[in-house]
Design goal:
With 420 residues, the protein is of the alpha+beta class. It has 15 helices and eleven strands. It has a single domain, classed as Cytochrome P450 (Cytochrome p450), CATH 1.10.630. This is Cytochrome P450.
Length: 420
């Protein structure tokens, strides 16, 4: 099988796990309707499919819910240190996925006791965030952003609201100014690193992110405050500045873009699905239900790269070789017909894999903090602008061309102008 509009893939590099049916993770079908592609891949390949990443680099896409759960629960078989990869000799220096897979002294790539030490520091730093204060801060941020466009009767919510709010909340938690050119450039470079568009240089952007966070760490060593960065810097575990910089990049990146997409994907659901839209201005179905349904059906992080096989093993009927790369198909796993045989996803069920699973899942309480940000953003907007409607037909909305993130290119809305 190949993706829409493509021919059979060329002969892959030596040691390739993929056979002649390997799927390129590119193309319009993947960008706009990936769920259809996942179904087709399951039908043709089962729960673990051979795929080709950028530059036709071979990997496995794990599509099954139980298979993703197994991989993420067995670090002794599928580990995070990407230096194990058996394809490094084929990876060019400017490969666009290097910010994802190039080894860094980050909590993301640590294993065993070292991972528990590093993740423990992040967990304790995040536990210091007061959720009531965070909700209050987010409401204040939301009110200011809404006031900027409330008088015009129209807005593009991706840029003017969802991304701006998540960005300001994330940097404020970490002790940076919520506004300013410096902060805005950091957020733009994070976007390029995580979800590069055509013409972007993700490797250079990631370098600029590192430099900015390095300065933040230096500032907090000199003048600590009541923020996540200071708590990590002052933690008795004694992380080095290099370790702190890498871990903070992970924290800020996870708090910003995925949360912004979670907000916007939820607003899209509320404004387009009659189960919600008919009730938005009254006793609407719970915003919490909508947020949870989005995590099942339009999760902000579609796929995550990845895990690397520690030794030869089997998964989903496939022979996985030592050093093979596995991409975690979080979106595909969440809609696995083995767990939803009637194609019904229960919004009240929170057993999705959107925050991953196992020892390397998002550290507690990160999902709770993301929920506070997203829920406050959605509820505040609906309370301030109760007659909010889309200004285009639902089918005119388009998704960003990314296999990693699930987010709209824009969300244009209109409403009765509010005189400030």
């Amino acid at each position: 099988m190949t993706d829409a509009g493509s021919s059979s893939p060329p002969e892959a590099p030596a040691g390739c796990p993929a056979h002649a049916g390997a799927v390129r993770l590119t193309g319009l079908e993947y960008q706009q309707t990936p769920s259809q592609l996942y179904r087709e891949m399951r039908r043709n390949h089962g729960a673990v499919a051979p795929v080709l990443l950028d530059g036709d680099i071979p990997a496995w896409l794990v599509l099954g819910y139980s298979e993703v759960s197994y991989v993420t629960s067995h670090d002794e078989l599928f580990a995070r240190d990407s230096r194990r990869w058996n394809q490094w000799e084929h990876i060019p220096a400017d490969w666009p996925l290097l910010p994802f897979v190039g080894y860094q002294p980050s909590v993301l790539f640590t294993e065993g006791a070292e991972h528990r030490r590093r993740a423990g520091v992040i967990t304790e730093a995040l536990e210091g965030v007061d959720q009531f204060e965070l909700a209050r801060d987010c409401q204040q941020i939301a009110d200011r952003l809404i006031s900027d466009f409330a008088g015009s009767g129209q807005a593009e919510l991706m840029s003017a609201y969802a991304h701006a709010l998540a960005m300001r909340a994330a940097v404020r938690m970490c002790g940076m100014p919520a506004t300013g050119d410096d902060t805005q450039q950091l957020v733009e470079d994070l976007r390029i690193s995580l979800d590069a568009a055509e013409g972007d240089d993700p490797v250079a952007a990631y370098g600029r992110v590192g430099a900015r966070i390095q300065q933040l760490v230096k500032d907090k060593r000199d003048r600590p405050g009541p923020d996540v960065t200071s708590r990590i810097v002052l933690h008795p575990a004694g992380l080095t500045d290099e370790e702190i910089v890498q871990d903070l990049i992970s924290v800020i990146a996870a708090a910003q873009q995925p949360t912004a997409n979670w907000i916007c994907n939820t607003l899209r659901l509320l404004l387009t699905d009659e189960r919600f839209a008919l009730n938005v201005s009254g006793g609407r179905l719970s915003v919490g239900e909508a947020l949870n349904e989005v995590l099942w059906l339009d999760t902000p992080t579609q796929n995550f790269i990845g895990r690397w096989a520690v030794r030869d093993t089997q998964l989903g009927g496939r022979q996985i070789r030592a050093g093979d790369c596995l991409v975690l198909g979080l979106a595909a796993a969440n809609t696995d017909p083995q767990i939803w045989p009637d194609s019904y996803v229960g919004a009240e069920n929170a057993a999705h894999l959107s925050f991953s699973n196992g020892e390397h899942r998002c550290p507690y309480p990160a999902p709770l903090l993301a929920d506070v940000i997203a829920r406050t953003a959605v509820e505040t907007l609906l309370e301030r602008l109760p007659d909010l409607v889309l200004s285009v037909e639902p089918e005119e909305l388009t998704w960003r061309p990314s296999i990693w993130m699930r987010g709209l290119t824009s969300l244009p809305v209109q409403f009765t102008p509010v005189v400030q």
